[in-house]
Amino acid sequence: MKRIVPLLLLLAALGGGWWFYGNHVPRANYSGAIEAEDATLGSKVGGRVAEVLVQEGDTVQHGDVLVRLDREPLEARLREALADLERARQKLLELENGSRPQEIQRAQALLDEARHRWELLKNGPREEDIRAARANLQSARAELELATITEKRQCELYKKNNTSADALDRARKELSVAQGRERAAQAQLDLLLAGFREEEIQSARAQVEAASAALALVLEGPRVEQIEQARAEVKRAEASVERIQVDLSETVITAPSEGVIETCRLRPGDLLAPNQAALTMILYEPLWVRIFVPESRLGLVPLGRTLYLSTASFPGEFFKGTVVQVNRKAEFTPRNVQTPETRDYLIFGVKIEIQDPERRLRPGMVADVFLSDHPKAGGPEP
Q1: Which of 77, 92, 190, 262 is deepest in the core (most CB within 10 A)?
Q2: 51 and 71 in contact (C-beta within 8 Å)?
Q3: Structural domain boundaries of the chain?
Q4: Could you tell me how far CA 145 lies from the centroid of its own chain?
Q5: CA 168/CA 118 separation, integer angstroms
C-alpha cells in the first residue's frame, strides 16, 4: 500500500502537468498574408470600345459582360467570308455533279459564234453586208437631219419662252444620240469597204481555238485535280469563317470568375489594341495563405490535411483551410546544415487554400495558421 500511494501521486502530477501544458502553454502557429489571384483581362483582336459595363470596385459573377467592342468591322468581314464560302461550295458541287446540258450548249454556241466571225473575217465582207451598211448609214443620216431640225426649232421657241427647258433638253439628247448612230454607221461601212486586217483575222482564229478547248473540257468533265482544288478552297473558306467567328467572340470581355474589379480606365470610343490590358480584377476564389514550417514539423502538413486559421479582423472565429502544396525544396539558413541544431532553420513553403463561403476574408489580411486538429482542442501541438 505504501508503494501504491507514491505511484498515484506521480501519475496525478504528470496528468496535472499535461493539463497545464495543454491549456496554458501557447500552441505554436505560423502566420502569412492571405493572397488571391489577379486577372488581367483584354481582347486578342482589339478594336473600338462600344460599351463599358463596370467600374472599379464592382463585384461581378462568372460570365458577366464587362466590356463590349465594336463588332461591325468583323461582321462585315464575316459576311464577305460567308459569301466566299458559298461560292466555293457551289463550285465544288458543280464539279462533282459534272457538266450540265446547258453548259455544253453554251460552250457549243460560243464555238459556233467564234467560227462564224473567223470565216467572215477570213473571206472578207459580202456584197449584201456592204449594201446593208449603206442602207443603215442613210437611215442614220435621215435621223440626224430630223434631230438637227428639231433641236434648232426648240432653241428658237425657248428663246421666245414658247417651250420648256425640259423639251429643249430632250431635243438636244436626241440630237446627240443621232450623231452617235451616224458615226457608228459610217465606221461600219468604212470597215467593210476597207476589208479586215491580218491581226483581226488571227485574233478571231485564236478565239476559235479557245472556244474549241473550252467545249472539249466541258464534254470531258472536271478532272480529279480540279475537284481536289475546289475541296481545298472550301476548307480554306471554312477556316476563314471560323477564324472570324472566334475573333467576334473576343469582342466581348467577360469575367472569368466571381470577383471584384480592381482597375478599369476604359471609356466608350477608346481604341483597345490587341492583347492590351483592358481591366484587372481580383478573384474571390481561390484564396490562400502561404506559411513556412521547419523540417521538424513537416509531417504535420501532409497534402489534403484540414487546418484552421484566424485573423485579427474576426477575433475568436476560425476558418478552415486545406493543404494543397508543400514545396519539394527547402529554404534554410544557413545554406549548409552542419549540426543537428541548425536543422530547425530548414523551412518548407506550405500553401493552404482557404474556405470562405461568406466572402469575408480579403487579400492582404494576416492569418495565423494552427497545426493542431482544432485551435480550441486541448493538449499541446505534436
Answers
A1: 92
A2: no
A3: 92-232
A4: 67
A5: 45
CA distance 215 to 301: 84
d(CA 255, CA 66): 7
**Helix and strand totals (H; E) in the chain:** 7, 13
Distance of CA 257 to the CA centre of its chain: 21
Closest C-alpha among 259, 204, 225 to residue 66: 259
Q: Which of 319, 256, 327, 332 is nearest to 288 (CA)?
A: 319
pTM, rounded to two decimals: 0.51
In order, the DSSP letters of 254-289 are E-SSSEEEEEE---TTPEEPTT-EEEEEEEEEEEEE
The rounded distance, in Å, linking the Cα atoms of 28 and 112 is 104
Distance of CA 72 to the CA centre of its chain: 13
Binning the chain into helix, strand and coil, the percentages to the nearest 5 are: 50, 25, 25
φ/ψ of residue 368, rounded to 5: -100, 125
Hunting for cell 456584197 — which residue is that?
Answer: 127
C-alpha grid cell, residue 357: 463561403
The answer to whether 61 touches 200, Cβ cutoff 8 Å, is: no
Q: What is the DSSP string of 18-77?
A: HHHHHHHSPPPEEEEEEEEEEEEEE-SS-EEEEEE---TT-EE-TT-EEEEE--HHHHHH
pLDDT in tens, 236-288: 999 999 999 999 999 999 999 888 999 998 899 999 999 989 899 988 888 99
Backbone angles phi, psi at 350, to 5 degrees: -130, 125
CA atoms of 295 and 248, how far apart (whole Å)? 53
Q: Report the side by side order of strands in the sheet with 271-272.
A: 252-254, 65-69, 47-52, 271-272
Per the DSSP assignment, residues forming a β-bridge with 40 are 280
- Please tell me the predicted confidence (pLDDT) of residue 73: 92
Give the per-residue pLDDT at 382: 41
